[in-house]
Amino acid sequence: MRFETFVASRYLKSPRKDRSISVITKISITGVALGVAALIVVLSVMNGFERDLRGALRGANPHLTVYSMMSEGITGPESKTLEAKIREAIQVEEVAPFTTSQALIMGRNKPMGSLIKGIDAQKEPQITRMNFFVRTELFEVQRQRDQTPEEKKAEEERAQKSLDLLAPHYEMVARPNGKLRRTKVSGIIIGSQLAKNLGVTINDWVTVISPEERITPMGNMPRAKKFKVVGFFESGIMGYDEILSFVDLKSAQKVFGLKDKITGLSISLADGDMAEEYKKDLQKSVKFPFTITSWIEQNKNLFAVIQLEKLGLAVILTLIIIIAAFNIISSLVMLVIEKSKDIAILKSIGATNSSIRKIFMYQGSIIGLTGTVIGEILGITLCWIISEYDVVDIPSGVYIGNRIPMYIEPWQLVMIALISFMICFIVTIFPSLKASKLNPVEGLRNE
Fold it and tell me: Is the link from the previous residue into 176 a cis peptide, with omega within 30 of 0?
């Protein structure tokens, strides 16, 4: 065993005579551990939030969308030709037509503006996760991880039933005189926040007023149609649940005077994360007057904000580790003062400056390593507790789920441990240099 290793082990194993040094050492270890644990928990929450948000956005938006740059939209024959080009250019799971139009919806409360999307109810669940986002109650709490396969299947069947009711169908509707009459009904699925603002529930009637006008004996009048509320759209994404509404494609074409025209085609891919690569391949075949966007491109600003927040929080919490590491300096400096006589004796019997320096660097490194390991264990434990138990119950309708999302990235654990240990190692340099430069004569002068 090398000389400095032997001396360092003796220093580490021998009891401290000065309790103040021991207390500062414990404070240093605690500070590093808490800083590491806080960094792990916060980054895990941000990872979980980003993963849930990406999943929700990938589910609420088509992986790729092809629009027409011409204001009149895409005609029926054009859409068939375009779909054939898309299927020939890239491998797709499904292609579905859609329309988007702005309209005014009148419910029990004051009228609200909405973006009405006309969809094919049979194809849409294969394009987006409509089966997952459609609810039969406002702000219905979904505990997907606790659901049995039977419960999940029952939920999907209820959602599909709501989607099937979008298409015009016949129902027995009560007239003002109380008599039932067989009436042709079209359904509408309204965003949960929008439905709350309108004050409507399932089976209520709303009136959709289109900006398109039609000629009547009274003059030009806006097109209007009554729809029956058959479901609610709840994605938990800000800006979606407040404005989106879904109706049958043919109903939308009729209300907005589109005839057989559509706004564009929605495309579903086997791997939504590869949307940008598929977009580049598709652009080689589908050119002007069509434009292609991916779900990642449509939400790139949101992802940029999340990454910036993660970076800012990581920097702030790393400062906590740095502050805790300065306690290591205090501990080692006090140790140098306390052990000045021992250092002088060691140097007088042949210990080199390098040996003395290594002793204190070992001491500081052990403190930093101990704090880092404890912090990693504490951080992982806290993440598990938060993810498994309802430590914080998120109100329904506020977020995508009802629990704080937690997702631990293994590479982040390694990176946090390396950075923490590196910081703790760097701060040992000053006290170790101070100890190695101690003059033996000064240390033994008063002995």
Answer: no
Would you tell me the crossing angle of helices 300-338 and 410-426 to the nearest 10 degrees? 30
Cross-strand bridge partners of residue 180: 174
What are the tens digits of pLDDT across the range 250-292?
999 888 888 888 999 999 988 888 888 889 888 888 888 888 8
DSSP 194: H
Helix (H/G/I), strand (E/B), else coil: 107: coil
Label the pairing between strands 64-68 and 180-185: unpaired
Integer Cα distance of 89 and 267 in angstroms:
12
Q: What is the DSSP letter of 403?
A: B
The residue among 191, 192, 202 whose CA lies nearest residue 229 is 202
What DSSP line would sit under 150-162, residue for residue? HHHHHHHHHHHHH
- Structure-token pair, residue 104: 């005014």
Q: Are 313 and 43 in contact (CB under 8 A)?
A: yes
Question: Can you tell me the distance from the alpha carbon of 139 to that of 235, in angstroms, rounded to the nearest whole number?
Answer: 10
Rounded to 5 degrees, what angle do the CA atoms 348, 350, 355 make? 110
Higher-confidence residue: 338 or 266?
A: 266
- What per-residue string of b and e applies to 187-201 under the rule 16 or more CB within 10 Å gives b? bbbbbbbbbbbbebe
Compute CA 383 distance to the chain's CA centroid, rounded to the nearest angstrom: 16
Backbone angles phi, psi at 23, to 5 degrees: -65, -45
User: Rg (Cα) of the chain, in Å, rounded?
Assistant: 33
User: Are residues 233 and 195 in contact, defined by beta-carbon separation less than 8 angstroms?
Assistant: no
3-class SS of residue 138: coil
On whether the pTM is more than 0.85, the answer is no
